[in-house]
Write a structure and sequence with these properties.
Order of helices and strands: HEHHEHHEHHEHEEEEHHEHEHEHEEEHHE
Oligomer: single chain
Structural class: alpha/beta
Number of domains: 2
Number of helices: 15
CATH superfamily of the largest domain: Acetylglutamate kinase-like
Length: about 375
């Protein structure tokens, strides 16, 4: 158990997903303020020991429907969007007020799943989130339900949280839910259900334990959580499912006072990302390096514009490119921080000249070492 707890306590970057049922009273539609205060204290402890934290929070529709006087049960799409628009204001204010009590700064980010899956939007979202973390802020992320269509259905924030963890290279994802982990069958209807504390392989047998999304086994269905585990672990991020019904749920995990299931990633986020880069099939272009740049790469350095002598192909920022030595040998692959058009303007120049050459301040590296897989 201690090694599983360390997946959380030793993580440099953690994504915490909070289910709507934990945050909002189902009968009154009001925020569970004391619960959120306790969670804020947990997050403050994590920040104090140097961990970066991102929060993916449901709750806007649940809060907004009460304010608008919408009936219980299934809402029409336009009603869900109206409730989300109303509730998101209240939700953001609540996080700002309550996390502010423990001197935490927050920023609101609204995403749809396409923001984590379409390359251009993915890069922009990741850049914004990275900047917020570097400035000591805690991004509070929710789906942009005011414009989403098919995304508005329970369980999707599990998947969104996993995509955020993947995008941000998180070490640990915690799904705080109304269940305390994975069982081999629905424990609400099977008294002999067996609890599974540690999962290393998301086999067909394990996935079958999730059942369907209409089950009572978790507010969004256990299957959505298992699909989130697939996304997270493939990205090198371990994932924990734990009950959030108690006060201080994160502290309870850390102290060994709460039962949870941990889906253990075999790779680190950096290793998993490099494997993905190395295994990508289509390269959009090539960068030819001088001998100095080739040596720098061999020493674990990033590729700077000054070390590139030639560019071939037509590519955009974030596309995969092949790195070629001066004598034509393939050195590896990486993700370009610039389009081919802009890259051609800055190669052979020092990073300090980029702003003057392009008219904007871009990244110092043409390909960052963390976005590179060498042969």
């Amino acid at each position: 158990m201690a090694s599983l707890i360390e997946k959380l306590t030793n993580a440099k970057r953690v994504v915490i997903k909070i289910g709507s049922a934990l945050l909002v009273d189902g009968d009154t539609g009001e925020l569970r303020k004391r619960w959120l205060v306790a969670l804020a204290e947990d997050v403050a402890e994590m920040r104090a020991r140097g961990q970066e934290v991102l929060i993916v929070s449901s709750g806007s529709i649940a809060m907004g429907r009460t304010v608008l006087g919408l009936p219980a049960g299934q809402l029409r799409l336009e009603e869900s969007q109206a409730a989300a628009a109303t509730g998101q204001v209240l939700l953001a204010h609540a996080y700002q007020e309550i996390l502010g009590l423990v001197d935490l700064k927050i920023a609101q980010i609204l995403l749809t799943l396409s923001d984590t899956e379409e390359r251009r939007r993915y890069l922009n979202a990741r850049s914004t989130l990275s900047t917020l973390l570097s400035l000591g802020s805690i991004p509070v992320i929710n789906e942009n339900d005011t414009v989403a269509t098919s995304e508005i259905r329970y369980g999707d924030n599990d998947r969104l949280a996993a995509r955020v963890a993947q995008m941000m290279g998180a070490d640990c994802l915690v799904l705080l839910s109304d269940v305390d982990g994975l069982y081999d069958k629905d424990p609400t209807t099977n008294a002999d259900a067996t609890f599974l504390p540690e999962i290393h392989d998301l086999s067909d047998e394990i996935m079958a334990m999730g059942g369907g999304v209409q089950t009572a086994y978790g507010s969004g269905g256990m299957i959505t959580k298992l699909k989130a585990a697939q996304i997270a672990t493939q990205a090198g991020c371990s994932m924990i499912i734990a009950s959030g019904k108690i006060r201080h749920p994160l502290q309870a995990i850390e102290k060994g006072d709460a039962r949870f299931s941990c889906f253990v990633a075999t790779d680190t986020p950096r290793t998993a990302r490099k494997k993905w880069i190395a295994g990508s099939l289509s390269s959009a272009g090539t960068l030819t390096l001088d001998t100095g740049a080739e040596k720098a790469l061999g020493n674990g350095k990033s590729l700077l514009p000054a070390g590139v002598t030639r560019i071939d192909g037509d590519f955009e920022r974030g596309d995969l490119v092949t790195l070629i030595s001066a004598d034509g040998k393939e050195l590896g692959r990486g993700l370009s921080n610039y389009s081919s058009e802009d890259a051609k303007l800055i190669i052979g120049h020092k990073s300090g000249e980029i702003a003057d050459l392009l008219g904007y301040s871009g990244r110092d590296e043409l390909v960052h070492r963390d976005e590179m897989a060498l042969n």
